[in-house]
Amino acid sequence: LSLKFGDIGNLKGLVIRFLLTTSYYQLSVQNWFSLHRLQLLYNHSIQATFNATRIYAPASYSYHCEHVSSLQRYDALLIPSSANDLSKLWEVTFIDFQIQGFNIQEGHFAYAKDCASFFSPAILMGLVMSLILLLVLAYALHMLIHLKSLDRHYEGKASPAYFAQMKDNDMGEEKEPLRSRGNESYELRNQQFCKIYI
Description:
Structural class: alpha+beta
Mean pLDDT: 77
Shape: elongated
């Protein structure tokens, strides 16, 4: 495929050529096309050549990508063909790039295979946040189960510890007489409560 700019100012004579190949893959039982190479021509002479990587789709589909570029910040899908080539002097970036080389019907693109990978930064962030929320939920459930087991532990225990010594035992053994001025008084032997009975 050739993209010609025609008579557009300084771009007159500039041609961008896309070299596409098609192959049949038995595993998918269909033909796939791929962008093999991109060439920049100016006044009918090749100025730069880039090898394309990971730009492919089924032959009945089109290929779409937000950025197809030779720059590293856009994942560099276009790589200079050789170190001695003038390609390193060029920076090529296509924005909202879509291409289809075969099976074009009524001049419209077919369904597009997007270049977004299954593990894009947004998807990875969503997975990390989901993992954090699951860990928090698991910790909360663990704490709730732990609290319930403590409640059962204390419910099973009787708690008469504070009143164990207030039973009505033999009062004769717990009291001893006090002698003062002819009045008969009794005092508890157990001085825990500090009470005097007269």
